[in-house]
Amino acid sequence: MVPPTTANPRPGGRSARIQNSVHAAVRTLLEEHDRAQLSVPQIAQLAGVTPSTIYRRWGDVHELLADVAVERLRPESAPEDTGSLHGDLTAWMEQFVEEMASPEGRAFTRDAVAFGGAGRPACQCAAYTREQLDTVLNRARDRGEVAPAGQTVVDHVVAPLMYRILFTAETPGLDDARALVDAVLERANAAQTTPTAGI
Question: Which of 2, 67, 163, 181 is 20 to 30 A from 109 in CA distance terms?
Answer without folding.
Answer: 181
